[in-house]
Amino acid sequence: MQLLISSVCMALTSAVIGNAYYQKQQFYPAVVYITKSNASMAVIYIQFFVIVFMFGKLLRKIFLGTLRAAEFEHLLERFWYALTETCLAFTVFRDDFNPRFVALFTVLLFLKSFHWLAEERVDFMERSPVLGWLFHIRVGSLLTMLGILDYVLLMHAYNSTLVRGPTVQLVFGFEYAILLTVIASTAIKYVLHAAEMRTDTPWENKAVFLLYTELVIGLIKVVLYLLFVVIMAKIYALPMFVFRPMFFTIRNFRKALNDVIMSRRAIRNMNTLYPDATPEELRQSDNICIICREDMVNHSKKLPCGHIFHTTCLRSWFQRQQTCPTCRLNILRTPTVNSTAIPRAAEEPANAAAAAAAPTGGQPAAGADGAIINPAATATGVPDAGQPHPNGSAIRNPGVPNFADILAEANNLRNEMSNRAGIPPPPMMPPFMMQPPFGYFPPPLVPPPPMPQDLNTFNEDELRAMEGNLRTHIEERIKMLRNILVMVDSANILMQQYQGIIARLPPPMQVVPPNPDTTAQRVPTAADATAAAAPAQSGAAASAASPLPRAAAADPAAASTPVCDKPSTSRAATTEAKPHEGQVNSVAISSPVANASEKVTIEDLGAEEDINPSTDAASVDVDSEDSSELSELRKRRLKFLEERNKSPTATSDKTD
Amino acid sequence: MAGSALRRLMAEYKQLTMDPPEGIAAGPISEDNFFEWEALIAGPEGTCFEGGVFPARLVFPPDYPLSPPKMKFTCDMFHPNIFADGRVCISILHAPGDDPMGYELSAERWSPVQSVEKILLSVVSMLAEPNDESGANVDAAIMWRERRDEFNRIAQRLVRKTLGLSA
């Protein structure tokens, strides 16, 4: 086909030239004859293009060899777009349309095609299994040649613009400048790929270098395009023909920028949040990074879920997704206990405030759950408020349970228990390995709700906002209650996850006897009371609509239905907070139904606030009588601690 | 050292050749280009596709395994989860984030942990148990749900066709 066309063309050209020479007999008249005749000129033009095409083929043979199917496809696609844009450019410069002008554009298109091919080739380097010396020589010489040509043509355009003012050379200068940036980025990529190929180990920072190259080149291109559009719009008309490439350049630049940002974030997260995997951990796992399927010898990271990957593999994945590749745990939303466990040993005002918050935290549950919870929450909480620092430094936070504290206790307890039972503590068992791999874990891990502000450190203003009897103060208190409820919910979800893990634990762990000493010592502390109140309260929250609130609360396991639905729980919180205020009127309320019927709006509260403190005290009296229920509570709490201790969970070991 | 995508594909190829799962064969079309594979999938036993051997083509992106490959059957297929042009519509082949059908859990989506073997095994189980909720081919989905006999007949014809027998 191509051969046919070129031979036909050849024949036509020789016919035209022969005819002219035959008619005029001399050289100059013949040339004049040909240039005067449109038909002859058309043939000459076509011949010219055929020659260019053949020259292109020759160059391709020399520098690239045979094109792959994909390369050819891409070339064809881009070529048609470029051709359309060139035609658009012709419309802007229709005044100085002449053969020289067409020739210049042809050269531009010709060079552009080779730039694209060089780019494709270099991109392909990373994907081809074997590359010989021929490849390197070809790519090297092609890049050098294209670079020199671009530079020469750019300088020519620059000089001609300086001498003759802005002409069509402006466009060429700009186009060659863009092509120079393309060559620069291709050359950098080539060097990076070639350097990686020479080493036997994967080069870890290559991806980062590539990212930054993209970013810088993208920036230069965007600036060039913008400059060009502004200059062209000033001198000629709006250059429609650069809009498409400009759009793609800007889009690529945005993507590069985004990639760089994500990559930086991923690197920062990995450096700060996740520990390097120790050789021991590597030995225990099968030692293969599941992303690249290669051995992990060095530079591997362990995620909060216990899965281990190469640092570089993780980084490139985190650039796209912030989840664990294996179990899809959202690594950004996983609370790291370290960050919340702020040491707050013996802070007097903080403790007092926390203790003050404790009874209010306990009472919404009491309001809904009747007298079962009330004794514990109020009996232990309110005395604490009276003497802010009862237990000295032994119990750091009487008022509000902090996850870190609970977990630390649980941890100590577990160690003690395992020691007593004669079971050696598990040998450096990575706690996260207990979690079954993805797909095996029926309910996907519900990330705990976000940690509310630290409830143990109140400043003067916050305290002042909450004490007093005005409506704003009460609103402040309610806000605090909601915060506490969120914490309780998260505790509940954690508990649920622990239970899920307990269910699969090996039997020896389950026969460990409870430890009466440690638990008995802890019972009177408000921290524990509130901890015990946590599941019960959420049980109440879950059963707010159910007719059997007590049954639900009595069985904490049943009560731990998923409370991950934030909006609904906060609604539950408000409805519970209101019954709590409703107690102002009736001290000994045992049924949540009664409470619900007595919903008091916030407007009412303002009027009744005066009675508040006294009734609180009254409820303490009433409740503290109920010692049998207190012991029941103790039993239940004991059970909980036991369960918690049995579960070597993610968060508990973090505090070690 | 070659690129990471290439190394991983080579490792997977090696593993698939050394220890091939039953009813599945896969490998690069040419050893020069590891990014295009051909796979042969045997129709699962006890289903209407039993006995058939279905050829498919897998095209891997340059950033594999961060992005999923594309899979396309190169023979005629009539199945609720296969488009008329042969493209396979299963959640494991979809990158997390985009959700063409709007029903997939992100837990079922592509992640670098998946592999060619897992994809092909999912396709086998998809052949055995079509998901008529997704409906890449709505006609097939309706026929699967309402006129199972007819569906089975068409499937049997396709099986004979892949074996080179006349329908």
UniProtKB/TrEMBL annotation, chain A:
CDD domains: RING-H2_synoviolin. This is RING-type E3 ubiquitin transferase. GO terms for cellular component: endoplasmic reticulum membrane. It comes from Drosophila navojoa. Belongs to the HRD1 family. InterPro entries: HRD1_E3_ubiq-ligases, TPR_SYVN1_N, Znf_RING, Znf_RING/FYVE/PHD, Znf_RING_synoviolin. Its main location: endoplasmic reticulum. The keyword Membrane applies. It is an enzyme of class 2 (transferase). It is found in: Endoplasmic reticulum membrane.
Automatic annotation (TrEMBL), chain B:
It catalyses: S-ubiquitinyl-[E1 ubiquitin-activating enzyme]-L-cysteine + [E2 ubiquitin-conjugating enzyme]-L-cysteine = [E1 ubiquitin-activating enzyme]-L-cysteine + S-ubiquitinyl-[E2 ubiquitin-conjugating enzyme]-L-cysteine. Pfam families: UQ_con (PF00179). Keywords: ATP-binding, Nucleotide-binding, Transferase, Ubl conjugation pathway. The active site is at C89. It is an enzyme of class 2 (transferase). GO terms for biological process: ERAD pathway. It comes from Drosophila navojoa (Fruit fly). Interacts with AUP1 (via C-terminus); the interaction recruits UBE2G2 to lipid droplets. Interacts with ubiquitin ligases AMFR/gp78 and RNF139/TRC8; recruitment to lipid droplets by AUP1 facilitates interaction of UBE2G2 with AMFR and RNF139, leading to sterol-induced ubiquitination of 3-hydroxy-3-methylglutaryl coenzyme A reductase and its subsequent proteasomal degradation. CDD domains: UBCc_UBE2G2. This is Ubiquitin-conjugating enzyme E2 G2. One of its GO terms (molecular function) is ATP binding. Its EC number is 2.3.2.23. Belongs to the ubiquitin-conjugating enzyme family. Residues 4-164 form the UBC core domain. SUPFAM superfamilies: UBC-like. Accepts ubiquitin from the E1 complex and catalyzes its covalent attachment to other proteins. In vitro catalyzes 'Lys-48'-linked polyubiquitination. Involved in endoplasmic reticulum-associated degradation (ERAD). Required for sterol-induced ubiquitination of 3-hydroxy-3-methylglutaryl coenzyme A reductase and its subsequent proteasomal degradation.
